Amino acid sequence: MTAAEDQQPAGQPVAAAPVPDPRVPQRTRVVLAEVSRTGSRADRTRSELTQQTRVGETLVQGLMRAQLSLALRLSLLVVIGLGGLPWLFAIAPSVGRVTVLGVNLPWVLLGVAAFPFLIVVGWAYVRLAERNEQDFVDLVQRPER
Predict the structure, then answer these.
(1) Percentage of residues in the chain having pLDDT higher than 90
(2) How many CB atoms lie within 10 A of CB 17?
(3) What is the Cβ-side half-sphere exposure of residue 106, based on CA atoms within 13 angstroms?
(4) Fewest CB atoms within 10 Å of the CB: 36, 120, 129, 141?
(5) Contacts of 78 (CB under 8 A, 6+ apart)
(6) In whole angstroms, what is the distance from residue 66 CA to residue 60 CA?
(7) CA torsion 80→83→88→93, rounded to 10°?
(8) What is the pLDDT of residue 19?
(9) Which of 42-56, 75-89, 90-104, 113-127 shows the lowest per-residue confidence on average (mean pLDDT)?
(10) Nearest to 59 by CA among 144, 138, 126, 145
(11) Using CA atoms in the order 44, 50, 52, 53, what is the torsion angle rounded to 10 degrees?
(12) Is 97 helix (H, G, I), strand (E, B) or coil?
C-alpha cells in the first residue's frame, strides 16, 4: 500500500503520482557523514582523566611509573658515582694519597667535584621528567587516526 492509498478512503480510486518534469533539476539531500560523532579521542581521554575513571587512572599511573623509574635510575647513578668514591679509596689507597694543587684527591672529589656532578644530574632529571610529561600530554591530545 502506498502513501497515496493510505490517505484515500476505502473504495475511492487512487490518483496517480505526478510525473517529474525532466527540465527541472531534482533536489538532492546532502547529509554529513559522521553527525553522531561529537567528541574526538583526545576529548574522551581528557574526560577520562578529569572524571578519574579506570582508563584515566591507568594513564596517570603510567606517567607516575615513568617518573619513578627515571628518579630511581638517576639516584642509582648518584649512589654509584658518589658512594663508589670511598670504596675506590679503600681498595686503592694510593689513589687517596694523590694530591691536586696541594689538596688530597678525596677532598677535591667529594668537596668540589661532587657539586657540579649533582647539578648535572639534577638538570638531567628535570629535562627528562619534562620530556615524560610532554609525552603524556602528546598521548592525551593525540588526534584519532
Answers:
(1) 23
(2) 9
(3) 14
(4) 36
(5) 117, 118, 121
(6) 10
(7) 170
(8) 74
(9) 42-56
(10) 138
(11) -10
(12) coil
